Amino acid sequence: MAEIATAVASEAAKKATETAKEFISQKISYALKYQSYIKKPKEQAERLRRRRDDVKEDVKLAERQGEEIYNEVNDWLTGVEDFMERVAKLAVDEDKAKRRCFRGLCPDLIKRYRLSKEAEKVAEDGAKLLGKGNFARVSHPVILQRTASVYIRGYEAFDSRMPVLQEIMEALKDPNVNMIGVYGMAGVGKTTTVKKVAWQAKEDKLFDEVVMTTVTQTPDFKKIQEEIADQLGLTFVEPSVSGRSLRLRDRFKREKRILVILDDIWAKIDLDAVGIPYGDIHEGIGQEKEVWKDRKDDERRYKILLTSRDQYVLRNHMNIQNNFLVGLLSSEEAWYLFRKIVGDSVETSDFRPVAIELVGKCACLPIAIETVAKALKSKSLPVWEDALGQLTRSNPRQIEGMAENVCSIIELSYHFLKSEEKSLFLLCGLFNGSRGILISDLLKYSMGLHLFRDVYTFEDGRNRLLTLIHNLKASSLLLDGITNFSVKMHDIIHAVVISIASSDEFMFNIKNVGDLKDVLEEKIPKTSTAITLPYGDFHDELPESLEYPKLKLFYLFSQNQSLQIPDLLFQGMKELQVLDLTGICLLPLPSSLRCLENLQTLCLDGCLLGDIAIVGELKKLKILSLVDSDIEKLPGEIGQLTRLKMLDLSKCSNLKVIPPNVISSLSRLEELYMGNSFLHWEIEGLINNQERKNASVLELKQLSCLTTLEIHLHDLQIIPQDLFSEKLKRYRILIGDVWDWRWYATYGETSRMLKIKLNNSISLIHRVKILLKRTEELHLELNGVKNAIDEFDEDGFAQLKHLHVQNGHELLYVMANTMRSLSAN
Question: 253 and 168 in one domain?
Fold first, then answer.
């Protein structure tokens, strides 16, 4: 035992001695080898600086895309900045530690010791930062929240509205009420009321999510699903309605408290098919019934609110027993609303008596009051008196669901319009649908009908059209569409326009007819000037021939591609100026098309097409639109259309052949659209001793009147010198094989967009220099280019608003002139 004890004591003494040596050695190392301790954090700082710069670039791109940066990324960047400051302080302390003490005879070991200790701590923190700096993602998309102005814009807190508003809010709080209906006549303010309800529900925190979408008389399930998903921050991966329905249902089950508002339903709607768990509320489906049933109200509050013009639809079709009426305004409220719009002049002794009678004729309907008030604002007293006389003498047309005199109220606004405004107003009425009206279509129709006086070019026509649209919006007769490129019309006003058009102008909008053939042959007057058959799932046969000698416009949009167009259908329409057949199978084109010698606009969008050579016989044609058709070859006969001013081949993805010299023959062409379309451009001249079989880009140079161009070219090399001229006022041009065509400009409002792919050399960039000077939106794909932007244009880009660079890893700088032009815009 004694020997063991002695051995243990000896071993312990040995270890203590070694530990003491290590401790003393470490302390000496701190004092004498301070520079080696400082080296490590300096190396870490350099690695972190490079990583930080990369992360900052990712953060900058994410912020430009509107995404939110993760907290751990921001914290890491802050930590790196703090670390850099600590390393910088070490450098300062290192200089101090180099100084010697005792008049330069001895090194300052204390400062060196402290410096080494601090450097060791900094290095430990640097290692942690390096370990945390590899982020898979730096950001996440933000769920956009609607602001108060979106919900309550246009809402007036009228006393007559407060009771129904309070009743709806109480129903939302009632655990025994799951579905709520709001009804009332068109234009009474149902939408503004439920928007106020939505905002109040959010303010009172009754629901975690409130989503609202518009259904309309022709429900588009995909559109409804997309609007709901957008508000929930949900992205669909399923292309089908049924697949998206399952995704929505799953999302709804994950929400504890949600309010779904469906505005403007006209008939029974299958909510289960959309993905809104309607059936679960009433009877439940399988296990889902138990999921919804067993949760307490404070854990689960799921409600649906619907609006409709018809209480019967809510009560009988949707089985809603809690329905609330939004009624007309009181006389005092009607007066207040009218006075608010027209201003203080209404209180003068001359205007007030007339104004009181005018407001009375508006029947306390908000839409009617607003429409008349805006029509009379800033007008003289005789104009007001004349308006009152018209209302007093008129014989209002009866339109189902509208109060007496409302039709004549809208008519009055129509009569205040100028001639061109009236024509455009009627034209919009003929084409108004649930998705609104594309402004580009209105331009094609208006120019074909010579609707604008003293307008001869498409550029002037577009300017006139936009001006008239602005005027109609200001008069509350047109509304913004779902995109910046469309407009729509309020349903009441639309009903009145159709009434006016059919009775005064012999213009007819035919929908939901039982016997289409009988209507066209017997019911529509032969003196008609316009006939539109929109959005029809027609199964009836069309007449063999139609005799409408004064018809100027004929429009047929069928969802049934088996519908046959009789060969002689158009032989009795010889004055036709605008023909639009959308979604029709035209294999072949009817031979009677050649009878339309006065045709100005021909639209065959979305049609199944074969040989369209017959179109070349329409010598007066100015607008030819084949958007989204399946045409594979543009016949050479199209080159005979020497008066053509617009050719729209957008989204003709099957178009493979355009014979040589067809494009160049269209010498009066002003607008050419080939986005997401023809790509098979050939080089001018002989190829392997063979003549060209396809169009050459050089043919565009012959189009001296061209002001608008949308085109996709695979390479800069096929672009000849001086191909583009300063006459181009709007363009979307893609150059390179990396671009996916987007139907509209990425940023919405730009009219001049250029996308270019560049490889190592940019020697050919001068071929598009004239475009670069005026480009508003520029996209660059850079491969091995270091100073491309500087070499593009030495004066910068005076009109550039948006710049997007991809794969620009070797890009060294952006020139100062360019940045000034960007900041100025």
Answer: yes
Place of tokens 């401790």: 23
Residue where a domain terminates, one of 101, 119, 140: 140
Are the C-beta atoms of 345 and 299 separated by less than 8 Å? Answer: no
User: In this structure, is residue 637 part of a structural domain?
Assistant: no
- Cα(181)–Cα(665) distance, rounded to whole angstroms? 61
CB atoms within 10 A of CB 209: 18
Q: How does strand 68-69 pair with strand 139-140?
A: antiparallel
Within-domain flag for 557: no
Domain that holds residue 791: 714-825
Residue 752 pairs with which residues in a beta bridge?
Answer: 731
Instruction: Give burial (CB, 10 Å; 0-12/13-18/19+) of 807.
Output: middle
Kindly state the DSSP code that residue 307 receives in the 8-state scheme. E
Contact in structure between 659 and 696 (CB atoms under 8 Å): no
Number of domains making up the chain: 4
**C-alpha–C-alpha distance, residues 581 and 176, integer Å:** 52
> Residue 175 CB: number of other CB atoms within 10 A?
10
pLDDT score, position 294 = 45
**646 falls within a domain:** no
| CB 272 within 8 Å of CB 265 | no
- Cα separation of 239 and 247, whole Å? 11
Phi (first) and psi of residue 646, to 5 degrees: -135, 130
**pTM for this prediction:** 0.67
Do 732 and 768 sit in the same domain of this protein? yes
pLDDT, tens digit, 9 for 90 and up, residues 744-753: 544 556 889 9
